[in-house]
Amino acid sequence: MKAIWKLAIAAAAGMPLVGIAQAQQHLSCIKDVSYSQEFLAKYPRAPAACNQVIESNGQKWIRFNAKTQSVGDGQATFDFTDNHGNTVASLTFAFTPDAQVVVKGRPKMASNLKKGEKVVFWMPENRFGFYAHPGAAESQQFKLVSTDTSQGR
Question: Is 82 strand, coil or helix?
Answer without folding.
Answer: coil
